[in-house]
Amino acid sequence: MMIKKILYFIIVGICLFVFLLYMFGPFGGTNAIRHYVVDGLYSVKYLKEITKGDLTEGSRSISRLAGLIFWIALILPIILLPIWKMSFRHRFTTTVVCFCILITILIVPKIIILLNS
Q1: pTM above 0.70, yes or no
Q2: Interior CA angle at 36 toward 31 and 37, to 5°?
Q3: Disulfide: which of 3, 9, 32, 106 matches 27 by Cβ 3.0-4.6 Å?
Q4: Residue 71 · residue 98 · CB < 8 Å
């Protein structure tokens, strides 16, 4: 149980650090969040690498969806932190799932590029 609590607070700390870095760092604050949701998480150049130059509206929509899911998965563990009435098991499971989603969104396109080359 103690290892789960330590892991939980490490993941929440990582999410909080990334969120604060985007809010107050050199990335642009709330405009950066809006940019990733409206324009997509991945740049046009990066999308062309993933799709081998065949950039369609569908790939842009997937990039926008990935941006929205990225920010939801980043902010949800931070929001759940002060909710003590929720059982720790549910908070822990939700936080681990959100962290896995974040890792997947960031790593899968890199794996696709490696496999395409």
Answers
A1: yes
A2: 95
A3: 32
A4: no
